[in-house]
């Protein structure tokens, strides 16, 4: 018999993790080997004991699911990644494609779609909820035919990491330690972010981070 798919589950809400685990534990070929409360913890757990599949929320403290997915792709290229999210919008869907997600599942339909998405990911097949297939993929193809591109990102991956941590209230020293960079580098990134986004201070930066889904209000 084939060994069960080993799954790492990351969501900052314990009740959500519990509910998702109940869904997955009913399947004999799926097993949850670890739970993380944020993206940074998910990366740490995956490095210590690589799973076959990571199921990530998008909005989480310290490191979002999208940021964690980029890091996991760099460190564990064979890892399959699914996003389980409440966000039903184009921005997050296209960003999920950018970071190499195998599937995008809405929390509102997890009881119906999540198991199927896990199986599809392990077959190297994409899984998208029906509205994404009919609307978002069509929009993407229309952009491609017109010679366009998927929506551009205003900041770099590293700037996004700094932006999120600043908005969460971390000091320059704490950000430097979390990202393994110097204090001067943190300040340079912060200055670049404010200039690129046309923001003046931490308050405006925090409001932007909330609108961008990097932190929850």
Q: How would you describe this structure to a colleague?
A:
- GO terms for molecular function: DNA binding.
- This is Two-component system response regulator.
- The chain is of the alpha/beta class and about 220 residues long.
- It folds into 2 domains: about 140 residues, Response regulator (Rossmann fold, 3-Layer(aba) Sandwich), CATH 3.40.50; about 55 residues, Winged helix-like DNA-binding domain superfamily/Winged helix DNA-binding domain (Arc Repressor Mutant, subunit A, Orthogonal Bundle), CATH 1.10.10.
- It is about 55% helix and about 15% strand.
- The chain has 10 helices and 6 strands; from the N terminus they run E-H-E-H-E-H-E-H-E-H-E-H-H-H-H-H.
- The chain has a 6-stranded parallel sheet, sandwiched between helices.
- Helix 2 runs parallel beside helix 3 and helix 7 packs across helix 10.
